[in-house]
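idk why but the lab printer keeps eating my pages so im just putting this in chat instead. protein + zinc ion:
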Amino acid sequence: MGYSMEIYSAAKKSMENRRLLAEQELDVRRDELVMRIPRVQKIEQELVHISVAAARSVFSGGDKESELSALKEKSLVLQDELKNILKENDLPENYLDPWYNCRECRDTGYVDGRMCTCMKQLVRQTAYEELNRISPLSLCSFESFDTGYYSKEKKAAGDMSEYDYMSKVFRFCKRYAMQFDEYSEGLLFSGKTGLGKTHLSLAIASSVIENGYGVVYVSAPNILSRLESSQFSGRSVERTEDEQLLQECDLLIIDDLGTEFVTKFTQAAIYNIINTRLNSGKPVIISTNLSTKELEDVYGNRMVSRIVGVLRKIEFYGSDIRQMKKMKK
Ligand SMILES: Nc1ncnc2c1ncn2[C@@H]1O[C@H](COP(=O)(O)OP(=O)(O)OP(=O)(O)O)[C@@H](O)[C@H]1O
Ligand SMILES: [Mg+2]
Ligand SMILES: [Zn+2]
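predcted complex ->
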């Protein structure tokens, strides 16, 4: 696992809202029922009195046992009466209990101190929405990836047409996403602008999230300037949280490597992130429109040979699809 703190706290907040909503709905149901059948309120009040009396009896001297069993008897009679009222009015037995979304955790998100499956689902959903906010996933899915944009005439690698070649890339990425687990290999997407590198990495991201993994998608310029500004403004907690997240998520996607403003700091930071992921064997997908040679010029031989040595390199071929789409409009 591994999602940002923002995502966890947003998910917690929605869970809390679910619980509150269930409780508010109960209040509305109860008020409405009491209006119709005032006896319901009487019974509920008496039940409260009984439990107060029972608690008091436990702490006082005297013949506790017979006192308690009398109270228990009274309480059972009242509960029965309430049940009957509900039944006679064709209402379900749990009409006067909160209707939680999840019975396991009663919408608290936790069972015995562990995250409930419903909470995990909510965290995933929140991560998905967050990613969607950055870049509309619906626009960058496998379904919306159209191999028709690649030429059937122009040759890509070897003897294949760009179309055949990119269809293979597409199938590979789909399979990669479907079979993704913590042992998956890392990928290096390289190629000129507008060929679908970001599109396919987002498609992989959403499918991997759907399968329950923690995915962090960042663009190199954004994350580096974020790390840099927290470094130099002394917000070290933030920086540590960010770095932890980058290191611990199941899949890290670094988009647009090489388009950031390169400084000694960014060089060291990117090396650090990538190297730590590679050392711990955690998958990373990097996209760049620089060639290996150009990457070396920017980051030096040491980092680039690590990246090229460990990640599976996937070249993208074709003509700028961003341009083609603009022309069509
Ligand atoms: N095969 C495709 N089918 C449909 N839309 C595509 C395809 N490839 C790319 N696009 C669309 O074209 C635009 C540019 O693609 P994308 O952002 O993936 O390019 P890129 O390779 O990441 O380019 P850059 O190097 O500039 O970041 C996007 O709107 C994307 O959704
Ligand atoms: Mg891109
Ligand atoms: Zn639950």
